[in-house]
Amino acid sequence: MSGAQLYDTIGATYTVTRRTEPRIAARISAALGDARTVLNVGAGTGSYEPTDRYVLAVEPSALMRSQRPPGAPPCLVGSAESLPFDDRSFDAAMAFATIHHWQDPIAGLREMRRVARRVVVFTHDTSDTGWHQRFWLTRDYLPEAADLVVGRPTLTELAGAIGARAEPVPVPWDCVDGFFEAYWRRPEAYLDENVRRGTSVWARVGPDAEQRAVRSLRDDLASGRWAERNRELVDLDAAELGLRLLIA
Fold first, then answer.
1. Domain-located, residue 38
2. Residue from 121, 117, 150, 137 nearest 40 by CA
3. Which pTM does this prediction carry?
4. Is residue 188, in this structure, part of any structural domain at all?
5. What is the pLDDT averaged over residues 14-31?
6. Looking at the domain assignment, is residue 128 inside a domain?
7. What is the pLDDT of residue 13?
8. Stronger pLDDT, 136 or 12, i.e. the higher one
């Protein structure tokens, strides 16, 4: 299933939990530098589109386009791998938490590099074979998540395709954007159906794995086992969970 098909299926409640996290938005804004024109690729509802620059969005999912707020920048139907723009049409091209849905991430990144002089991409480093062990949710409850990245390009390959550097993006404990790792210090949130529907991982692992994980987490929260296993998280303000900015 393509990313567009997936979000046309699961994206109806996306905006319930997915919104702009100001601290991450500040990182993206800084990475965009002095760019005055920005192309947002795989834009979704446009949570991280800067408001102080000209923005044009590209999004393949009709359901996601329909949830863009009034006054949002214009949004075209299209995919990253075939952007309908001339070379260097934009000062910058950005993509937020979307390249794992692209059919060909390398081709999509090269297209972004072609149409813009600067590229900023928020993504996840799955290059380390132990990456899924860093997050208790995938380690203890949803190991199937590791299967979702099999055969996908590594962070090194993604960065190499556009000559990018990678910067770590720690996840604040009170992150207001409900992406998959956002509730690492608030485990009860993963029991909420709306929280799970706001990220594609749950849909992609399937209902059996999802319900097993939810049951196990609920039991461990009730028994105190989760708290015992993860006592070191209580005093952390932010966690390193493999999120990265690629900047080229």
1. yes
2. 121
3. 0.92
4. no
5. 92
6. yes
7. 66
8. 136
